[in-house]
Amino acid sequence: MTALHPARRREQTSPPPVERIPFPTVDEVSRHCLQEEEPETVHIEVHLPGRPEPARLRAAFGEALRRHPRILMREAPGRWYRRRYEWELTPAPDVDPVSFPPPGPDALAHARVRALSACPPLSASPPLRLEVINTDGKKEEKRGDGNGRDGNGRRDSRGNPTGDGGGCVLLLTLNHTALDGPACLRVLATAAELYGGADNSPAPQPERPPGSVRAGSGPHLPAPSGSGWARPVRVAADAQGTATATGNGMLIAELAVPRRVPGGAGSAGSPGGSGGPPPYTVNDQLLVATSLMVARWNRLHDRPTGPVRITMPVDDRPRGIDMPIGNGTRLVEVGLSPEDPADERLLTAERPDPAAVARLLRRTAERTRALKAAPRPPLGRGGALLTAPVLPVGVRAAVARGLRRAVAPWTSTTLLSNIGRVPYPLDFGDAGRAQAVWFSAPARMPRGLTVTTAGTNGRLHLALRWSRALLDDDAAGTLAHLFEECLAATAACGSATDTTTGSPP
Fold it and tell me: What does the pLDDT look like over 223-253, one tens digit per residue?
């Protein structure tokens, strides 16, 4: 007789609970307004003189992700009537984020196209990808439109840093709903340190110019001329045969860092307008150059002049290993209009008047210092109110999209994102240090144009990105040429008020 024993119950082991984090304000607003035709991607391009070993690089990047666990996340599934979107933090990547596309003469151009058109999904952790593209060492044209074509060919490249055919490009594509460029650059610096063993600590922040306003000190914000309700000008459309085109185009260029004259621009920050450090920053020069570019472009297209407003991200996060990962910038809008209306004609001339440029530069420096110091939520009080978890996310999303359409005429003219000097050496050991770093930000309508800059090895790396519903490739090339001319005009304006000469720091 066989004894019958009750079947043992299997020990039920439940998976460990997944930590969830509610979407911050910037993430939620971006999530509400996603559009397939204009992917919300950030592109980062790091040029190295050598080539890293694939297995070592994959291991180093994977360990860097684990050391910054906030980047290992995916959107938690949920119903439309939930009160919040949430991120799920994962212990490991859901997918391998590192790939090595086949080499070829157009490999980099194809990777740039993917960076603008194929957004890493929010449903898989991490919401980014890293492509390692081998370059052939031939001299490449630095101007490209993101579609595999060279730009307008006005400038010869300095070529691959070593010229030995052994270089590579690390091309990162981020989903901007989850991450921004500075955060991913911090993770890449950690990967470089793990791969090469060299210290990749950030360089000290540059000193502020005299007269800077400190946070909490009650900054005085110079009032812009004209009504605060005036609609900012739009960049004139010039997209021949592309009225129904979708997606973004991109053009990159390597420029000289604009010269800053010590004590120039007639600032009160330096007695007599001479001697001492410049009372403005390269960022102020970039803002003024962008506004002049738009004004001159619109004049060429017989568009009326008006106030130019530029959205500018401000990043107050530390750059060390403890840097918060995610979308950590706050957006401020800088109004760039001359105090004297008579200056408008002088500024939009083919050769902008140096004295008028100096006055606009001084006024812009005062405004940017005050805006950076003033405490403000990431998207203003309106953004905080819009994302308050009172109504279901589905309802808030419909409200956000409708509000975005309603306020489109008052949206800023363009966005300028200046990373500044890249704070990390990005030393990958046997693969070498970064020789050039480019960023580009999404260019969705109604702005349709973004200007992104970064400084590496004493050079300014510019990325112009545009909506194809606004510009075509030829028009964007002309716009980039105007930017270069306008940036040079900001470097020459010191001679209008000061004869002191010197080299920029």
Answer: 444 445 678 999 999 977 555 678 999 999 9
Q: How far is CA 481 from the centre of its chain?
A: 20
Tell me if 406 is assigned to some domain.
Answer: yes
What is the rounded distance in angstroms from the CA atom of residue 147 to the CA atom of residue 140?
15
Residue range(s) defining the domain that contains residue 95: 20-496
When divided into structural domains, the chain yields a total of 1
Q: What is the pLDDT of residues 353-381, one digit of tens each?
A: 899 999 999 999 999 999 988 887 777 77
Sign of the CA dihedral with 367 first, then 372, 378, and 382 last: negative
Cis peptide before 446 (omega within 30 of 0): yes
Instruction: Look at the block and give the residue holding tokens 């299997």.
Output: 10
Question: Residue 94's domain is classified under what CATH number?
Answer: 3.30.559.30
CA 17 from centroid of its chain's CA atoms? 35
Does a structural domain hold residue 3? no
pLDDT tens-place string over residues 301-324? 998 878 899 999 999 999 999 999
**Angstrom distance (rounded) from CA 212 to CA 367:** 10
C-alpha dihedral, 109 to 113 to 116 to 117, nearest 10°: -170
Dihedral of the alpha carbons of 322, 383, 40, 395, in degrees to the nearest 10: 120
Read off the pTM: 0.85
- For residue 413, being part of any structural domain is answered with yes
In a domain, 195, yes or no: yes
Distance between first and last Cα of the chain: 95
Q: DSSP states of 298-355 as a string? A: HHHTTPPP--EEEEEEE-----STTPPPS---EEEEEEE--SSTTHHHHHTSSS--HH
Cβ partners under 8 Å of residue 454, min gap 6: 418, 419, 420, 421, 422, 437, 438, 439, 460, 461
